[in-house]
Every structure is written in C-alpha cells, then in structure tokens.
Amino acid sequence: MLSLLLAYVLTWVLVQQAQIYFIAKELRPKNRPLNILLLQTSLVTLIFTSALLVAYRPFLACIITLAFFAIFLVVNQAKFKALNEPLVFSDIYLYLQVFTHPRLFLPFLNLPITLTAITIGLIFLYLAIIFEPTLTVSSLITSCIMFGIILILTCLIIKIAKNLNLNFHPAKDMKAFGFFNSLVIYFIQASQKINLDHFKNFLEKQSPYKQPPQSPAEWPNLVVIQSESFFDPRQLSQSIRPEVLSFFDQLRSTSTQNGKLQVPAWGANTLRSEYAFLSGIHNQNLSYYQFNPYQFLQNSPSPSLASYLKSLGYRCICIHPNHAAFFKRDKVFPFMGFDEFIDITGFDSNQTAGPYISDQAVAEKIQNLLKQQADKQPLFIFAITMENHGPLHLEKYTTTDVKDLYCSEPPKQSHDLTVYLKHLKNADRMLLSLTNTLKARAETTWLCWYGDHIPSMPTVYQELNWQDGRSDYLIWNNKITPTPPIKKELSIEQLGLDLLASAGLAVTNKS
Predict the structure, then answer these.
(1) What DSSP assignment string belongs to 158-216?
(2) What is the pLDDT of residue 500?
(3) 107 versus 232: which is more confidently predicted?
(4) Is the pLDDT reported for residue 211 higher than 60?
(5) DSSP code for 120
C-alpha cells in the first residue's frame, strides 16, 4: 500500500507541475479556488485509478497516467507555437484525423521533445512491467472498489465542471482553470444536450439567411474562392517583389469592393473562417462550438448562404481538392444547402503544385462547370483551394525562386516565406485565369475572393514582429465598368452579405 500511495502522490505532483512549467508563460494558471483544485485532483485520480485497474501495478499506473497527460502537453506546445492558440477540447475530434492525414498534423510537433519523451516513457514502462510486482490484494474486491471510485469521480467531475463559467477565450480560461481542467470543462459543458439545443436554436434565430428571399432583377452566377492562406505578404517585408501579386493588384483596382478581412483563425483552422462566411454569424458568438462547429452540425439543417441561394433557385456546388470527409464536410454541407460536393476524387492526381492539388486545377474545374451550364439555372460555386496549405517547412525552393520572389535580401528566417510566395504566385495566376474566362462569358458573374487565414510561419512572424492576423478580400463583376472601388474592412461573416448586396440578391430585412 505504501507503493500505491507513493505512486499516486508522485503522479499528482508531476501533473500539477507539468501544467505550470511545460506550457507557455501566458497560459500558466495562477491562484485557483478550492473547487478548481478539487477538479484537478479528481481528474488525476480518475486517470490514475483507471490505469491501475488495467495494470494492477502502482508505478506502471503512474507512468501510464503521466504519458496520457504528456500527450496533451506536447500537442498543446506544438499548436501554440504554430497557430498562436492553445489546445482546445474540440481539437481531440480534429486530431483523430492524424491517422488519415499525417502530413497535416505530425510535422508541427517538436520532434526532439516528442522523441525524447517517447523514449523515456518506453524505458520506464519496460522497467515497471519487468520489475514491479502486481498488487497482492484480492483482484475482485479491489477491482470493484476501483470501479466504484471511477464512477464517483466521474460524477464529481461532471458536477463541478457543469457549474463553472467560461470566458470562451481559450487562453483566459486556461489561466483561470488550468490546462487540463479547461479541456474537461469545455468538453463536459459542450456535450450537455441543453447547450447543444441552444446552439442549434441560436443558429436558426440569428442566421441572416433565414429571411424570406426576394425576387431579384437578374440571376447572376456567383463564384466564391476561399484561397488557402491568402493574404498580401508584401507588408511583411520590402524585400518581397511587388509582382508577386500583380494580377491581384489589377483586379483589386477594378473591383467593386475590397479591403482587409478579419478572420477567426491564425495559421490554420480553415473551418472557422469557412463557417463564418457561409453562416453569416460571428465565430465568437458560437460559444463552445466556435472552434469546430462542423463537429456538431452533422445531423440537422443549418441555414447558410448556400441554403439561401438554393431557395432562390440556384444550384450550389462546393469544390475542394481534399477528401470530403475532412472536417466532416461531406456530412455537414448537404444540410447547409449544397447540391454537389466535388472533392479530391474529382481531380487528376497529377494536377499538383507541391504536395497538393494546384490552384490552376481548381480554376479549370470551375471553368468546366461554367461551360457545362446548359440551362438557365444560376450557379453558386464555392471553391476551397488547397495548394498553399502547410506545413511549408517540408517543401524546398531553388536560388531561382529567391531571385524571382525577392528584390533585395530576404528576412533571415525566410524558408517558409519563400515557399509560401511560390504558391502565392500560383494563386495570383489562378485569379488571372478565372477572370479572363469570366470576361469572355455573356452571363453576368460575380467573383468573391478571400483568404481564410494567414499562413503558419511562426519564425517569420517572430523575426518581423508581425501580429496582424487579417487576410484580404475583393468582390468583382465581369460586366460592370470599372469605377473607384469601395475600400472597406470587413469581418468575414459580413462578406457573404456584401456579396449578395452587390449582386442584387440582398437578404430581405425583418419587418
């Protein structure tokens, strides 16, 4: 029994210290009230008891428990460095996709720390299995006691977590409650049926796309490009050649509206910007569900820009050169009003630029859909590009690329930036290709182009002290005579409404 007590105390102390010294300073918890400490103790005890129930060796249970918590700490460290955001509860759903899409997740881990932790853990695990004897008490009685403890602790954790008030800002909540506690609190409260029902009712009531559709004067086609990691990086450094976005500059000067775009993501988490654009609802207003709304919208209709246009008679098509199941889009998008989803299976696997399907291939897919528009049914095409998706540090560039992309000495930490600029030039060419096609068409077409977030380039931002997470957007029409465009900074949930207003499809105001 002494070994059991020692193993438990060691586990508790190490977990407690780990969430103080193994996370960023700005996330470390400070003074916490008794109920928060009780929640932390209950959580550690629950995991330790569960491990003990399986292993029947106290120190082996200690190692298993520490390994369990260490996984979350390592992933949090990697995410915070790359995306400037701590781990949140819904990342657990998202990161399960590491087994099917390892390139999108594993390269962001700190490999030295990860490998060192795995090696040390395996050594201690081996030693505990070989040298530590099992408990000598009655297996049946002890198992029943441990199972009862697990049930009691689970109920206690749920009771405490349900009654705590969250800020819905991950960093603030982590400082208030502690790293592990905040994950548990979010998970338990988000899983409550009352909160899920409130979330879906909120979407129904607050959606700007629930108003009765008007009868427009014309039915223009709408093409929206959510360009992966697109923003104007020339503001980062004067060494970047202005020609990197020459076609974007031309189109911006002839657009009807353009400007900076406030987005709820930094370096990744495309689905947040995507859902904000399609839903017309500010991401922060989604409370628990702001981090991964698609995870909770797989079984019921959700009003959106697509469903609104569908009610007007549009055929709504999504194009994305990745697997449809990623982010659960294949389940969510039909409920949001899309008639068709063209995913990576609709592309030639040789149409790549780097590791992903090229922007030009997406442009060609859009052009083909427009050519095949045999009847008068207008089209809404929502294309999500993939070419400029990281991890950028895994790709290479040449000295020729450096000469083409920079007019003077680039920043010292320029690897990720150089790779990014290579693909950004292709996004710029995609714009040229699309607009040339649209100009030649008789049908009126509106083009909306925006970036979902800035790219993940932590070393570049650190060197240049860059803290602006806004992307860029423009709205353009193939028939309107160019006039000085409206310069307007938007939050992304407003962009779809401005597009509709420009196209003469504005949502009817409430009476």
Answers:
(1) HHHHHTPPP-S-HHHHHHHH-HHHHHHHHHHHHH-HHHHHHHHHHHHHH-GGGSPPP--
(2) 95
(3) 232
(4) yes
(5) H
CA proximity to 474, closest of 291, 256, 277, 288: 256
Residue 468 DSSP SS3:
coil
Q: What is the pLDDT of residue 106?
A: 64
Q: Which residue matches tokens 């977030």?
A: 453
Whole-angstrom distance, CA of residue 69 vs CA of residue 73? 7
Whose CA is closest to 230, among 498, 492, 470? 470
Question: Is-contact 337 306, C-beta < 8 A?
Answer: yes
Strands (E), 214-276: 221-227, 257-262
Beta strands 379-384 and 445-451 are unpaired
**Exposure pattern of 250-264 as b/e (b: 16+ CB <10 Å)?**
ebbebbbbbbbbbbb
Sign of CA dihedral 296, 297, 303, 308: positive
Residues 6 or more apart whose Cβ sits within 8 Å of residue 58: 3, 4, 6, 7, 8, 52, 132, 135
Residue 510 has pLDDT above 80, yes or no: no
- Measured between alpha carbons, how far is 306 from 313 in angstroms, rounded to an integer? 11
Q: What is the pLDDT of residues 183-206, one digit of tens each?
A: 999 999 999 999 999 999 999 999
Q: Which amino acid is at 452?
A: D
Output the CA angle 305-306-311, nearest 5 degrees: 100
Cβ-based neighbours of 217, under 8 Å, separated by 6 or more: 504
Euclidean distance between CA atoms 472 and 232, whole angstroms: 7
Q: How many helices (H) and strands (E) does the chain have?
A: 18, 11
- The set of residues, in sequence order, having a beta carbon less than 8 Å from that of 342 and lying 6+ positions away, is 317, 318, 319, 320, 365
Judge whether residue 217 has pLDDT over 50.
yes
Residue-level pLDDT at 57: 86
Question: Model confidence over 414-437: pLDDT tens digits?
Answer: 999 999 999 999 999 999 999 999
Please write the tens of the pLDDT for every residue from 269-286.
Answer: 999 999 999 999 999 999
In angstroms, what CA-CA distances link 414 with 246, 393, 459? 21, 10, 8
248 touches 431 (CB < 8 A): yes
Which residues, at least 6 apart from 159, have a Cβ–Cβ distance to it below 8 Å?
none
- Record the tokens describing residue 260, joined without a space: 């900076």
Residues with Cβ within 8 Å of 15's Cβ and at least 6 positions away in sequence, in order, are 40, 44, 65, 66, 69, 180
pLDDT at residue 136, rounded to an integer: 65
Ramachandran area for residue 28 (φ above 0: left; ψ -120 to 50: alpha; else beta): beta
Place 509 in a pLDDT band, splitting at 50, 70 and 90.
low
3-class secondary structure, 316: strand
Q: Which residues are paired to 240 by β-bridges? A: 406
Q: What's the CA gap between 14 and 167, in Å, rounded?
A: 27
